[in-house]
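Ticket #4471: structure output looks truncated?

Reporter: J.K.
Steps to reproduce: submitted the chain below (561 residues) through the standard prediction queue, then opened the result file.
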Amino acid sequence: MNKPWLSHYEPQVPPNLKYPNQPLNRFLEESAEKYPEHTAVVFFDAKITFAALNRMADNLSRALPGLDVKPGDRVAIMLPNCPQMVTSYYGVLKARGIIVQINPLLSASEVDFIVRDSGANTIICLPRYENVFAPLLKEGVLKHVVLTDVGDYASPLYRVLIGLESRLQRVPTGPKKGPGLYKFDDILAAGALAPAAEGKAASGDTALIQYTGGTTGSPKGAILSHSNLIANTLMCKAWLHDIKSGPGGDIFMGVTPFFHVYGMTVVMNLAICAGCTLVLLPRFMVDRVAETIKKYRCTIFPGVELMYNALNHSPKSARGYLSSIRACISGAGPLYLAVQEKFESLTHGRVVEGFGLTEASPVTHCNPIFGERRTGTVGVPMPDTEARIVDPEKGEKDMPVGETGELIVKGPQVMKGYWNKPEATREMLRNGWLYTGDLAVMDKDGYFRIMERKKDMIKSRGENVFPRSIEEVLRKHPHVADAIVVGLPDEAMGEKIKAYVILRQGSVCSAEELAAFCRQSLAKFEIPHEFEFREALPKNIIGKILRRLLREEELKKKEAK
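Returned output as attached by the reporter:
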């Protein structure tokens, strides 16, 4: 297969890597062996060394058999970024369990679906989610609920200052075996006295069932093996080729959620693998993030465009709070040029756009960190990753360079399939290739540009319209803070183009002005037929706008007429 992108790799990045035959949790164990006293995690001024973190994960793994968790059993983790999240992740892997990550912001019905679909009978979560876990526990779907509070591993002073007082005072201590509620610390204490877990996972064993965001319907659980996640982590480590390990090394800003596959791999697993310090924050609050970066001199900040854009407008950023940042990979959505340039001017570091999807652990493409990046592209395929552009109808014919088609990828990071969904698996995985559902273009040098999701492309008066092209133009308007474009059913046009726009604070602008602005850069058939001004747009936890919800909203309006 012709791979023109290889000539654009940085000299330090090899096209092929060697992947160890080991379980994913060996990353933590190896860093604990190399850097036992080096700080692995910082959380509101409390520090945990690699040796201590590994010991905590060991204790959890030893305690889980007492909760009837056997190798291959699913354990749900529903936690924000905190030391208990990292401990639980590696502890479940050490016990040869299968992790089911759950976004704490999901509704009770969404959590109910994931727990039942995955077959998890144990969950580790916060006591505030009682309305979620109590019905499942009462019904017997869940047998064990391990509770911890966000503030339990923060410094005592911070527990008072930021209101992280424990809510576990009234939670009873459960027995070592049997149904009920358990305290996380009690489980770790029991594990410290229990024998070591027997055996270890094989690299091909399932490590994780990661549910997709469900932006196009019910979530599907992508089955990711230890080897999938090891491969993708090592690809990212090779891409960030000058990463510095151990004392005096790089410090990761860990605010991108670990329950999302992007944060899990590119922040948590990469930092643990590289022996770097992780500075954790449970949620993104712009001023606190800026203050934390300054305080701990964070150097690497994998994030999303929403975060970088918010920091661009923080007064603290203009005062040098971000000056320690040297490298950022932006994922989980497009990185707009204006955001990239502004953030780089504040940090003097590099921000590059990458691309991936849950089913690929997730990273498949990235612009070179310090080499040639091409604005508007997601860069080139990662080491050991193949990519093609095929016809979007049947997905069999390779498209000529420069023409739009569906992006398909192949590599050791690609999932085993979907949990209990053989038909969906066959549709997504064909002859070893993962069909991403994204329309893309490859240039002659092997840089890829994502045009749109196949399901998001608009067909208006017979023309193919890519929403991102219109959004890029709208975002350049001096009064526009954000914009999203969708296609809505229309009898005359097939689909009409509607733009939802958020204006900058204090700005005033009309639909006529925006249409005139679009006419300067877009073809006539790309001009939105309708503009709607809003205060906010529906987004998921990592900032991806949910077009589906906007379409559903419009359809409900139409039905109500």
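Triage note (M.O.): checked the attachment and the full token line is present. Residues 67 and 178 are 7 Å apart (CA to CA).
Status: closed, working as intended.
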